[in-house]
Specification:
elongated; 434 Repressor (Amino-terminal Domain); single chain; 129 residues; mainly alpha
Length: 129
């Protein structure tokens, strides 16, 4: 996953538009879009600015991955039995939860549509009988 794609995924997960980021970076939306498409070099300073706007550590963007890794340790001596989830994992977890919610909504819409279609077919079959 390229850096621009990582930025886009986190931006979308956070619910920000390209225009919002562009405005806060004092650049045009077109210029910002080029960042996400990988057409513009992202300097460390620019990446830090983006991270600040997205309210995530710069490392969360750099290390963002579609893979889902959560570091859960059960060693009571090191963390009192609490899960240790790093910031990258939190961002990814929030993103995946949002994606799951959207997909569940789409499934529900499709089921409703399917049921309506099924009823129409049954009504047509009953009329022909």
């Amino acid at each position: 996953m390229e850096l621009g794609e990582k930025i886009r995924a986190i931006r979308e997960m956070k619910g920000y538009s390209q225009t919002y980021l562009a405005t806060h970076m004092n650049i045009s939306q077109t210029a910002y879009s080029k960042i996400e498409r990988g057409e513009t070099q992202v300097t460390p300073e620019k990446l830090q600015t983006i991270a600040d706007i997205l309210e995530v550590p710069k490392e969360s963007i750099e290390n963002f991955s579609e893979k889902f890794f959560i570091n859960i340790t059960g060693d009571n001596n090191t963390n009192n039995g609490n899960s240790n989830i790093n910031s990258v994992d939190k961002v990814l977890l929030e993103y995946l939860i949002q994606r799951i919610t959207l997909l569940e909504q789409k499934i529900e819409q499709m089921e409703t549509h399917y049921q309506a279609q099924q009823k129409q077919w049954l009504d047509l079959l009953n009329k022909k009988s």
